[in-house]
Amino acid sequence: MADIIDGKIFAESLRAGIAAEVATLAFTPGLAVVLVGDDPASKVYVANKARQTVEVGMRSFEHRLPAETTQADLLALVQALNADAAVHGILVQLPLPKHLNTEAIIAAISPAKDVDGLTVTNAGLLANGLPGLVPCTPLGCILLLQDRLGDMTGLNAVVVGRSNLVGKPIAQLLLQQNCTVTIAHSKTRNLDQICKTADILIAAVGRSELIKGNWIKPGATVIDVGINRVPAAEPGKTKLVGDVAFSEAVQVAGIITPVPGGVGPMTIACLLRNALTAAKRIETTLEKELS
Ligand SMILES: Nc1nc(=O)c2c([nH]1)NC[C@@H]1CN(c3ccc(C(=O)N[C@@H](CCC(=O)O)C(=O)O)cc3)C=[N+]21
């Protein structure tokens, strides 16, 4: 049986460290979250983020806009948040309603406040190994891996998924850890065989329980990024499952993250960490400019 990582406990200790650092600052970091439309699952995340932001001593600014919001109105809000000195981090919850141009909205976010690490600037900085803001979920995964594995030099890492928010940045971070990195995805041939080569397997493809127990190398470390809501056994109820068939995988893997209670809580903790990083950088740059 694999060792099951408790992401909730790890995230709690991360947040305690963030709270302790926030308490020493001469200013209060502020994090703005923008939610367009009323997807119930998104609403829960936004509420959790807001609560935890306040718990670590930061200010939370929530903007809930109707689903019919226009591109111009959303752009205007992002620009106002860019200009607002009380706001150090901006997160626009994705996916946006279909009539909105997501790329243009992301491009409008000031890279200094881009706590999701989604702007071309932050993606480029990450690809070049330069300090920027790193997407929260990838950062959370790397923190878990560093804690459990320490030095990852020479290990085979397989990332299943190629999104800008998760797959691509995780691959960059694993390269920085000296892993040999393969990026696979839903169209990859012989996906099971490729997964089986992984010492570290990152499942971020967004397909519930795609990755089976017999795709996993015995003793491998499996990080399940998937958050899929599926019908539960009880009629009318739903449950969260990952991209990994957990009950099988737990028999084969050496270390594994569960869903829920694995990567999800780390994502929010890393969002707060990015907000703190952004706030410190913005405020020290301001100080320099003023002196
Ligand atoms: N710009 C943007 N950045 C995001 O990072 C982003 C986003 N948009 N859109 C939506 C997804 C989803 N997401 C989650 C974060 C934490 C949990 C989380 O904490 N989950 C808990 C359980 C939550 C529950 O039970 O519902 C867990 O896995 O244990 C889940 C999902 C961030 N996202």
UniProtKB/TrEMBL annotation:
Pfam families: THF_DHG_CYH (PF00763), THF_DHG_CYH_C (PF02882). It catalyses: (6R)-5,10-methylene-5,6,7,8-tetrahydrofolate + NADP(+) = (6R)-5,10-methenyltetrahydrofolate + NADPH; (6R)-5,10-methenyltetrahydrofolate + H2O = (6R)-10-formyltetrahydrofolate + H(+). Homodimer. It comes from the Bacteria. The keyword Repeat does not apply. Keywords: Amino-acid biosynthesis, Histidine biosynthesis, Hydrolase, Methionine biosynthesis, Multifunctional enzyme, NADP, One-carbon metabolism, Oxidoreductase, Purine biosynthesis. InterPro entries: Aminoacid_DH-like_N_sf, NAD(P)-bd_dom_sf, THF_DH/CycHdrlase, THF_DH/CycHdrlase_cat_dom, THF_DH/CycHdrlase_CS, THF_DH/CycHdrlase_NAD-bd_dom. Residues 5-116 form the Tetrahydrofolate dehydrogenase/cyclohydrolase catalytic domain. Residues 135-281 form the Tetrahydrofolate dehydrogenase/cyclohydrolase NAD(P)-binding domain. Catalyzes the oxidation of 5,10-methylenetetrahydrofolate to 5,10-methenyltetrahydrofolate and then the hydrolysis of 5,10-methenyltetrahydrofolate to 10-formyltetrahydrofolate. NADP(+) binds at G161, R162, S163, I227. NCBIfam families: PRK14188.1. The keyword Amino-acid biosynthesis applies. This is Bifunctional protein FolD. Pathway: One-carbon metabolism; tetrahydrofolate interconversion. Its EC number is 1.5.1.5, 3.5.4.9. SUPFAM superfamilies: Aminoacid dehydrogenase-like, N-terminal domain, NAD(P)-binding Rossmann-fold domains. Belongs to the tetrahydrofolate dehydrogenase/cyclohydrolase family. It comes from Acidocella aquatica.
